[in-house]
């Protein structure tokens, strides 16, 4: 059977391998993530400085600078009301995308670590910085594409309803919520291979194409893995749902401490084991699905020549 | 097509003329990856990282750079019992030569390297009894450069009548057959013959008596 086909056995094996590698490389991931967070913050500070320092001079010092942002705040607030100002709303959206871009890169470089693990069973924390440097713009572009493809239809539908002054309630609201969930699930599954493909040296456009192509061609394999991780994450946090009532009636007894402790532990497990396992699983899946299977492995002969050189 | 996939046939010889490609290959780790290992057999990132004692991530970046310039392709993917997905990479040719013309045209270090190498070759002939005076070293370098360029041009244009069967030949047999045919093609090429005659005349004229 081809490695690319899906079955329950294959899914379980994928999960087992991904979690095993995630646990084995726990420390590298932890250090790598800390490094990524630090670099991301530095990038954001530098980005802010590049924009704000010339602005500070152009606006005539700190008072002008403060006045400008006050005006911008009011303008953005009014832009996202039913009396839409498209230009200001676009600037606002552009600014949001710029602000979240370093986070896209941060997520992307973790896929770099995932690729190293899948290909050689190990990684190093310092490796993330090389991915950061070499793939910064591609990963940023990939993140923006993912963000746009998943979010744009939702933004248009909900934005349209909001601007039209419609308040959806009852059955239509339930249908809309259901369709939105289906769309998020489908489109995010379709985008799961974008970062692994960028790490595999594809351009943003090719990586998106490759991700869509693989998710359609190997629908069962891609979506079974993706949904399995979503179920794992939901299952991890489901017990907290039971404790919601406790939070609604705050107390400091065991009924508060136990769910709080569980939430902290679950968050750490999610961040340090489950998400790295997801990254490893998707990187591994990409490598398998985009790989070249050959039935005849070329025979290696001793490299001895009978005929001399020129 | 997959990224740099195996659909690219393996050539017997590739002469790299493009200065950008030459610069990429001038990095020592990349040169080792291609010229020492991947011309001989397909290898994984892990295997290369063990041979070169470098981080697998670093090797992967070099491999991607080499895929970008079309010197390395992905050959096949295999899964190990531990779940590692291994990609095997190989060179696109069994043998590479850096085009001397392209090197000399390149900026800075590469051009200087090419000139220094030609000069070293010419001066090293003295160990075989060929003493070329300093005043004629430039001329000797020029003749040698033209001879190498012509040889590269003839070798890299060797026609293959049956591409399908050629691909199926065992690598060692293919290498031997290729060398025989390249020699034959050079012997048939009048321009190469003329340059070789010029070069040999130069060598003869500077041969020390008694060698």
Provide a concise account of the structure shown:
Chain A is 80% helix and 0% strand. Chain A has 310 residues and is mainly alpha-helical.
Plain-language structure description:
The complex is a heterodimer of chains A (310) and B (211). Chain A has 310 residues and is mainly α. Chain A has one domain. Helix content of chain A is 80%, strand content 0%. Chain A has helices at residues 8-24, 26-58, 62-79, 86-120, 127-163, 170-190, 194-199, 204-217, 219-242, 244-248, 254-290. The longest helix of chain A is centred in the middle third of the chain and has 37 residues, at 127-163. The model of chain A has no long low-confidence stretch (mean pLDDT 83). Chain B has 211 residues and is α+β, with helices and mostly antiparallel strands. Helix content of chain B is 59%, strand content 13%. Chain B contains ten helices and four strands; from the N terminus they run βααααβββαααααα. In chain B, the strands form two sheets. A two-stranded parallel ribbon of chain B has the order 1-4. A two-stranded antiparallel sheet of chain B has the order 2-3. In chain B, α6 crosses α7. Chain A binds chain B through residues 3, 13, 16-17, 20-21, 112, 115-116, 118-124, 127, 130-131, 134, 200-202, 284, 287-288, 290-294, 297-310, and chain B through 2-6, 40-42, 44-46, 49, 55-58, 60-61, 64, 67-68, 74-79, 82-87, 151, 170-172, 175-176, 179-180, 182-183, 186.
